[in-house]
């Protein structure tokens, strides 16, 4: 039995050679068309399409078709389009018998299905739905497309301007931030800044101080120093002021941190969780920010102002608000009266509705303004009363602290004076000899019990250094007896 379905083949006219020649001619024509189109449109990009495209159901449609020249090439006499598939080619094929070869053209994707000689096969293109028969087709190598203009278009995009290198970031440390705040504080104390604002020269000076402790590779200029302060510390201080302004009836500890009972603090920080960082500690850099940005918080240090001055200022502000409100109401009432006097009877009767409506609107507006002002004035009065009470409490606390400090100073002064007296007395006693010590001791304790003659006799025998030293160091209970003994001995020697 001969292969290929019983059909004998001749080596000189094999179908695989015919298919190879057809594919080679197709590829050459496609390459020629691509080269021609590339010369005409050098910057035209190639459109990517799918690898396999089905034949068109409608032959008249132009979607996905090859160029006209390529379609005409499929109809040329060289390519026999009259060939129809044999019965063996229409038999069912296994997946291993079919092999798909795809290559792109400027107008679409050319798909060919090649099968081996055992099952037959056909070649089909989108432009020619009629298949080409290959009864005894052998496996042919895949057709590799040559270089198309798409590759040159893609390669041309590689010559782009490189992006500039990224700017190095400055890693701030605690020491650097402290140096920055200290430098700004010095500028404020020198009186160079106004309203917590700094000029460029100030930021340059502060950045120079920070550079002395910075060891990184990045450039630490004045803009970075300014952005660090403006982005971190100014919002932090504003947040601290808002926190202090929302407190009422709180006290403060030794560090100046607002305090209250545990229940009140738990309730407050649960309602305002954004202020939890201020429950146990002051803001970062508080001692610098107080002088840089100003101590404007509710619990901040205020000037020494008496309660009477605060109350007087509050009363003056209230009177000013009342006068402003009356001045706003008087023009409105005058305009209404003038409108009433100018109108004639006919006009008043014809426009009574408009007058009443405008009057009601003006009265309602005035009433709303009055209520709003009354609310604002009452709120202002409450706030002022709270400020007065807090100022009084702070003054009382300061007085207590000052009194306590004065008592401690007085106690320290008395203790130091006593200590100084003891030191002086010890020094004087150390500088005196035994004779002076003995005579001083006798005068302070025993001289009143002796007559003047006996006192002089005691002075006489105390002139001997050994007896004066013995009298000074002996026990107090024996000193009086020893004096009597010495006096009797002097009398016996005199007799």
Automatic annotation (TrEMBL):
<feature type="compositionally biased region" description="Basic and acidic residues">
    <location>
        <begin position="62"/>
        <end position="82"/>
    </location>
</feature>
<feature type="region of interest" description="Disordered">
    <location>
        <begin position="315"/>
        <end position="383"/>
    </location>
</feature>
<protein>
    <recommendedName>
        <fullName>Myb/SANT-like domain-containing protein</fullName>
    </recommendedName>
</protein>
<feature type="compositionally biased region" description="Low complexity">
    <location>
        <begin position="343"/>
        <end position="362"/>
    </location>
</feature>
<feature type="region of interest" description="Disordered">
    <location>
        <begin position="30"/>
        <end position="164"/>
    </location>
</feature>
<feature type="compositionally biased region" description="Polar residues">
    <location>
        <begin position="125"/>
        <end position="161"/>
    </location>
</feature>
<feature type="compositionally biased region" description="Basic residues">
    <location>
        <begin position="41"/>
        <end position="51"/>
    </location>
</feature>
<feature type="compositionally biased region" description="Polar residues">
    <location>
        <begin position="91"/>
        <end position="117"/>
    </location>
</feature>
<feature type="compositionally biased region" description="Polar residues">
    <location>
        <begin position="327"/>
        <end position="342"/>
    </location>
</feature>
């Amino acid at each position: 039995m001969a292969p290929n379905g019983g059909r004998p083949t001749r080596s000189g006219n094999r179908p695989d050679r015919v298919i190879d020649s057809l594919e080679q001619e197709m590829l050459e024509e496609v390459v020629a068309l691509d080269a021609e189109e590339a010369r005409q449109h050098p910057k035209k990009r190639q459109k990517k399409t799918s690898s396999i495209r089905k034949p068109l159901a409608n032959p008249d449609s132009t979607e996905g078709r090859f160029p006209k020249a390529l379609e005409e090439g499929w109809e040329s006499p060289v390519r026999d389009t009259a060939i129809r598939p044999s019965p063996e080619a229409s038999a069912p094929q296994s997946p291993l018998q079919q092999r798909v070869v795809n290559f792109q053209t400027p107008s679409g994707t050319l798909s060919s299905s090649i099968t081996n000689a055992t099952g037959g096969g056909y070649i089909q293109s989108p432009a020619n739905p009629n298949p080409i028969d290959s009864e005894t087709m052998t496996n042919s190598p895949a057709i590799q497309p040559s270089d198309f203009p798409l590759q040159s278009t893609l390669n041309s995009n590689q010559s782009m301007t490189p992006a500039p290198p990224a700017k190095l970031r400055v890693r701030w440390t605690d020491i650097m931030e402290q140096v920055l705040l200290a430098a700004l504080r010095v500028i404020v104390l020198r009186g160079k800044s106004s309203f917590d604002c700094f000029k460029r020269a100030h930021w340059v000076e502060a950045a120079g101080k920070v550079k002395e402790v910075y060891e990184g590779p990045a450039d630490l200029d004045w803009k970075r120093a300014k952005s660090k302060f403006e982005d971190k510390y100014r919002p932090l201080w504003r947040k601290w002021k808002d926190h202090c302004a929302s407190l009422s009836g709180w006290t403060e500890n030794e560090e100046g941190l607002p305090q209250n009972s545990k229940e009140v603090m738990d309730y407050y920080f649960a309602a305002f969780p954004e202020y939890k960082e201020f429950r146990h500690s002051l803001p970062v850099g508080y001692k610098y920010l107080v002088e840089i940005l100003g101590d404007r918080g509710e619990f901040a240090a205020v000037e020494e102002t008496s309660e009477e001055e605060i109350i007087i200022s509050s009363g003056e502000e209230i009177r000013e608000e009342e006068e402003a409100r009356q001045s706003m109401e008087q023009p409105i009432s005058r305009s209404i009266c003038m409108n009433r006097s100018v109108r004639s009877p006919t006009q008043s009767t014809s426009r009574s509705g408009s007058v009443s409506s405008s009057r009601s609107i003006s009265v309602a507006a005035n009433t709303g303004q009055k209520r709003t002002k009354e609310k604002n004035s009452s709120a202002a009065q409450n706030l002022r009363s709270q400020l007065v009470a807090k100022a009084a409490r702070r003054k009382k606390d300061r007085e207590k602290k000052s009194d306590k400090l004065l008592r401690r100073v007085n106690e320290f002064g008395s203790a130091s004076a006593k200590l100084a007296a003891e030191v002086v007395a010890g020094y004087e006693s150390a500088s005196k000899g035994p004779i002076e010590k003995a005579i001083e001791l006798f005068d302070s304790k025993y001289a009143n019990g002796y007559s003047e003659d006996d006192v002089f006799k005691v002075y006489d025998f105390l002139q001997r250094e050994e007896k004066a030293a013995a009298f000074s160091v002996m026990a107090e209970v024996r000193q009086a007896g020893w004096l009597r003994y010495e006096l009797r001995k002097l009398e016996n020697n005199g007799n």
